Amino acid sequence: MSKLIVIPGITGAQGGSVANAYLKSRGWKVRGTTRNVSSESAKIWKAKGVEMVQANFDDINSLVAAFQNANVIFGVTDFWTIFKDEESHKRKKANQDITHYCFEVELMQAKNLADSAAQIPTLERYVFSSMANASKWSHGKFSRLYHMDSKALAVDYALSLPGLQEKFSQIQAAIYYNLPWEWGLPTTPQKQNDGSYNITAIGSGDAPIPFLDVHRDFGSCVQTVVNAAPGINFFASQNVPHGKYNQVPLEKFEELLPGGLGREFGENVLFAQQFGYEGGDPVVRPRELGVKMTTFRDYCDQTDFSRIL
Ligand SMILES: NC(=O)c1ccc[n+]([C@@H]2O[C@H](COP(=O)([O-])OP(=O)(O)OC[C@H]3O[C@@H](n4cnc5c(N)ncnc54)[C@H](OP(=O)(O)O)[C@@H]3O)[C@@H](O)[C@H]2O)c1
Asked: Per-residue confidence at 238, pLDDT binned at 50, 70, 90?
């Protein structure tokens, strides 16, 4: 009999990659959740044979219904959906930093996912997409890396739940290769007079930064975590040497990307270079479980950059 994986966030980068990996695997059925089952992306997954159901991370009843009969659940929350939502700016407390509000909401949503997964008797593995606890591992130096700490605290919460702790593993996604050039950031390569390209970025050009081809590799990483014993903290990354670029300090990066975005992104890089992107807990790396990751060279060879050239 087929097993069932339920994928909240299937219309996104991580969930989509997980779904593609499982759709190629014999013996698995895939159910995806979305806030809008009529959206174009929901229809595309339906056409690929995925059972699409409506669920909202804010609504625990919708999650419990969506998770029924699951053998595996892949959980991911999206800090940036909350950040971009105009309603968030209305709902946050008057003096509250928007990024702190997003931290509170993302943590609450991740707890809803964990509480719902804990109620599913058929569940064998819950894999949650986490990040390092930046406040803890930087000893308070980076105490406002809210998109990281929210996910780290969600791990602590999941591990506190009887019925879930022994089925739980986490996976940390490194920075997506497409983020610096597809997200409209200052890191988008700019053509110079001499025909070369330069990017504006933060941090030391000498320190490697962990990257990931989220579309090609993340799904097989999650599959590997599912197949391994529980209790894993898997770091889905392929280090890339930083190289030469127009290096700016954090204050300048924040000016270029105002509203909290520049600080979250900029401090994320600084934290990674000073304390390690994945934090201080022991992690399992792809090569230890025989997972081959797309190199930066291969990513570049296989990617159409014409939009920015
Ligand atoms: N970009 C990077 O380099 C990077 C690196 C490491 C970690 N991350 C983390 O990855 C996370 C985002 O994952 P992603 O890149 O896969 O996201 P994404 O591509 O932006 O997709 C977001 C997904 O979340 C779903 N979603 C958002 N809010 C929801 C809600 N209230 N209820 C139900 N579903 C909701 C969306 O579904 P519908 O719209 O269909 O409802 C969509 O499938 C972020 O938290 C980020 O911090 C990113």
From this structure: very high
